[in-house]
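In this section we walk through a basic example: taking a raw amino acid sequence and producing a predicted 3D structure, encoded as discrete structure tokens. The instruction is simple. Fold the sequence below.
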Amino acid sequence: METSMKPMTLVAAAFAALVMAGTAAMAQAPEKKELKLGVGGKALLYYLPLTIAERKGFFKEQGLDVEINDFAGGAKSLQALVGGSVDVVTGAYEHTIRMQAKGQDIRAVLELGRFPGIAVGIRKDKAASYKSPADLKGMKIGVTAPGSSTNMMVNFLLAQAGLTPQDASFIGVGSAASAVAAIKKGELDAISHLEPVLSMLERDGDIKIVVDTRTEEGTRALFGGSNPAAVLYLKKDFIDRNPNTTQALTNALFKALKWIDKASPEEIAAAVPEEYLLGDKALYVLAVKNSKPTYSQNGIVSAAGMKSTNDMLVKFDDELKGTSVDLSKTFDDRFAKKAAEVVK
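The resulting token sequence is shown next.
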């Protein structure tokens, strides 16, 4: 009798295990599978992890159907999140601080970039006269979009020279081809931008880089410490209502970070859409080489990075002066830590 029951016991145990596994899978299923994600300049290498997650099918692996809305700059994607036309954003970390100061609970859940990757270049015929940030006064400066991280970088430089954002003219030039064209046509005196725009303008001798945060050395020279860049951010009430969806998004982008870390620049160039290459694959590969050090290694915004960004903002943002932002509310590390455990 004992012997005859053993197979039945094994079957029952196996069935129970299947039920438990199914229950666990259901518990982790995204609450909201169809999502709208905002980004400002998707083709820029600043947002490479987003493109890789999309192209490699990492969102679909997590049970998500993500519609990406590409805006002219990060400030526009933030506006879309606040207005409710997108669910989540990949954008600059500093936006979370500015929104917390305004009483809007927007939080980052994954760091994509650990250095800003932004550089400021002066047009070649004006470069010789540039000695310090004070010389930016009166210049027409191209940025991805007014209010975006490329704009904030210059605002910080102006503040170091005792100037205000009103002491220069900022012109939104979008990303990639339009930004390059604006410099080449002489429409700008300077530009604050990202890769691959920077490598193209440098290679052609159109600009002289005077501030460079594509490296740790350059970032520390400017900010005195680390300064996080792109993150995945969303409203806290979305996180509370959709924790599994938030985790799935984080997992997909974390996997993209791991893929980028292991891939060669040539493999990365082969993975992105053809139009990202701007007709020059070799240049794009060079831009990727320049950008690889900027991507996050663990997905976590450090406390030092939070403070460094806040210290930068209060120097020029009148809305932040005299305010006290609880920086712990700007980044929720639970999802990045979980992604590091489960993503292989």
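Looking at the output, two observations stand out. The longest helix spans residues 2-28. Residues 9 and 265 are 54 Å apart (CA to CA). In the next section we compare this with other chains.
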